[in-house]
Structure formats: C-alpha cells, structure tokens
Amino acid sequence: MNWLDGLRAKILFDEPLSRRTTLRVGPRARLWVEPDSLSDLSALLKKAKSRHKDYLVIGCGSKLLIKKKAVALAIHLNSFDFKQCRIEQDELIAGAGLSLPHLLKTAYDNGLGGLEFLSGIPASLGGAIMLNAGVSWPARVEIGELVRELKVIDKSGVSKTLDKKSLRFGYRHSNLKGYIIVSARLKLLRGRKKDIKLKMKEFLDYRRRTQELSYASAGCAFKNPEGVSSGRLIDLCGLKGRSVGGAAISLKHANFIVNTGKASSSDILALMDLAKEEVKKRFGIALEPEIRII
Ligand SMILES: Cc1cc2nc3c(=O)[nH]c(=O)nc-3n(C[C@H](O)[C@H](O)[C@H](O)COP(=O)(O)OP(=O)(O)OC[C@H]3O[C@@H](n4cnc5c(N)ncnc54)[C@H](O)[C@@H]3O)c2cc1C
After folding, report:
1. Distance CA 233, CA 36 (A)
2. pLDDT tens for each residue of 160-198
3. What domains are defined for the chain?
4. How far is 246 from 5, CA to CA, in rounded Å?
5. Which site from 94, 143, 242, 253 is most exposed, i.e. has the minimal number of CB atoms within 10 Å?
C-alpha cells in the first residue's frame, strides 16, 4: 500500500526536474505531487511529517538549481484551488500557484495597477513572495510592499493567516521559511488601463533590452552587493562568454548564467564558483548567490 493512498492529488513518479526548472537542469523527483485542495495539502504534509519525509516546494522553478542527486518529494500548487483570483475593491486575492503573467492580466483587466514592475518575470505568486521578487530599475520595488495578508501552511499541515505586521521582506528575502504560501491579498492601485498597459510595456522593453532571454536561465545568478551590480563586477573580470560544459556566462548580461543546451547542475555551479573567485580576487567582494541552490 502506498503512503499517499487516499490523497486527492495528481501524482507523478520519477519526474525529471529539468522539465520543471527554467535552467532546464536537475535530478528526478521520486514523487511529484499536486494536491487538489488546501485540505489535501494539509493531509500530505501530515503524512510526510509522520514518515520523516523532507519535501521541496517548486513554483515555476525560475530561481532553482538543484544539485542533490534526487528529490524525495516535490510539492507543486497547480490545481484550480491554488490558482483562483478575485478582486475586492482595490485588493486582489490570489492563489500562490497562479503565474505572475496571469496575475498581471487579471489586475490589468480590472483596472488595477501596481504590479507592472513584475512584467516578464516567469514566476508563481508563491515563489515571487517567498523571494520578494522585484526590480531595481528605475527604482527598487518589490512585491513584498504590496502584500497585506498571506494564507500559509506549516510543516505540520496547520494553516494560518499572517497579516502585514508579522511579515518581513528584504532584498530577495522573506521571513516565510518553513511555510508554504497558499494565497495572498495584495493592495493595488486603481488606474487607467491604458496607463497600466504602457507601464507594463516599459518594464518589458527594459527587460528585453538588458536581460539574456534567448537561453534558459534562472535570472540573476548573484545578488547585487550594496551600491554595485554583480553583472558589472563579473564583466570587469573579463568573464562574459566564459563556459564550463554546457553552461555559459551570458554575453549580454554577465550576471546571467545560461544553459546553452546540455548543461548540468555542476557546470552551472562551477561557473558560479569561478565568478565568485574572480570577483573576490579582483575587488575583494564576496558575491552571494541569488539562485536557490538545493
Ligand atoms: C528570465 C528570468 C528573469 C527573471 N527576472 C527576475 C527579476 O527581474 N526579479 C526577480 O526578483 N526575479 C527574477 N527572476 C527570478 C524568479 O522568477 C524569481 O526569483 C521568482 O520569485 C521565483 O518564483 P518561482 O515560482 O519560479 O519559484 P521557484 O524557483 O519554484 O522557487 C524559489 C523558492 O521559493 C520557494 N517556493 C516556491 N513557491 C512557494 C510557495 N508557494 N510557498 C513557499 N515557498 C515557495 C521554493 O521552495 C524555493 O525555495 C527571473 C527569472 C528568469 C528565468
């Protein structure tokens, strides 16, 4: 008898995580589980806890590099219950499994602005909140500023609501470790649809001009140290175009490490180590990974 018997969920065995991460690398998940509802997620976490099974939550996999040989249990919020979205005046309440493009479209359709800076980020709402996704152009702005309330569930399968006062967001960081984000209430701004559309276009155009979008990546590999861009430091070390196996440092944006086709997790890690070493040697600055290395 399987320990997941009775759970309402989509379950896949030996799922290649290279299909589930934007870097297109990774081992297999022995179990890939998409629970049907919050109560099924809770039941899954309770079962996993009683069997001492560790799990990894995967959203759109756009910030993940998995170096482990295998993942025992991957949890993905992909069912209808985790992708719902509704508007209450100028607030948007959405499931954590919703993709940012869908979220932005709903906000736009309802004349709500404030999310435009997230245009072009290939994330789920849950992953974006966990890592406080944002941009630093033309000024620093992050999704955490918009969060009014979160519904989360802990490792024991107990759900609770966290209000704004208990949330702490920093640069690509939140105090939500140990929780799975289930849904969020975001405070937006009423605006004219044509202005919202124009803003979204400006952010997308900037992204297309400056970022490497032709190859698989996880966005910026390193956080920017105070007052300086990691891409600039890596570029000044002459590393643009440098490759290890199938991984390369983008010629367009030196903080993007790309999979040119057949990279492995270790090729990408080797390039990250090289960039860290060279930047440390030349500038005395220790780069901190932005990519979540598991
Ligand atoms: C081309 C490209 C451009 C990008 N541009 C930007 C950018 O401009 N700004 C920016 O901030 N990021 C950017 N990113 C990175 C990425 O999209 C963000 O970091 C995003 O927040 C990751 O969301 P995800 O759903 O893909 O999370 P994943 O990569 O799946 O997971 C990231 C982390 O969040 C956790 N997690 C995911 N979902 C949940 C949940 N529901 N509850 C709890 N934990 C969860 C995971 O366990 C993991 O630790 C870019 C990526 C790419 C590929």
Report:
1. 45
2. 999 999 999 999 999 999 999 999 999 999 999 999 999
3. 9-80 (3.30.43.10), 83-209 (3.30.465.10), 214-293 (3.90.78.10)
4. 40
5. 242
Prediction pTM value = 0.98
Task: Compute the distance between CA of residue 278 and CA of residue 285 in angstroms, rounded to an integer.
Answer: 10
Q: Which residues pair with 35 in a beta bridge?
A: 9
* Greatest alpha-carbon span in the chain: 58
Could you give the CA distance from residue 168 to residue 46 in angstroms, rounded to a whole number? 27
Residue 3 φ then ψ, to 5°: -70, -10
If you measure from the C-alpha of residue 163 to the centroid of ligand 1, how many angstroms do you get, rounded to a whole number? 22
Q: Whose C-alpha lies nearest to ligand 1, atom 2?
A: 219
Summarised one tens digit per residue, pLDDT across range 121-130 is 999 999 999 9
What interhelical angle do 100-109 and 193-210 show, nearest 10?
150
Which ligand 1 atom is at minimum distance from the Cα of 22?
A: 53
Determine which residue's CA is closest to atom 51 belonging to ligand 1. 219
Which of 212, 290, 208 has its CA nearest to residue 253?
212
Residue 45 region by backbone torsions, left for phi larger than 0, else alpha for psi between -120 and 50, else beta: alpha
Q: Could you please report the per-residue DSSP string of 241-260?
A: T-EETTEEE-SS-TTBEEE-
Using the predicted structure, report yes or no on whether residue 1 has a pLDDT greater than 60. Answer: no
| Ligand 1 atom with minimal separation from the 125 CA | 25
* Backbone CA torsion sign across 123, 125, 127, 131: positive
> Does 289 sit in the ligand 1 pocket, CB within 6 Å?
no
Query: Which residue pairs, CB below 8 angstroms and at least 24 apart, start in 154-159?
Result: 154/45, 154/178, 154/179, 154/180, 155/45, 155/49, 156/45, 156/46, 156/49, 157/41, 157/42, 157/43, 157/44, 157/45, 157/46, 157/49, 158/42, 159/38, 159/42
- CA atoms of 285 and 280, how far apart (whole Å): 5
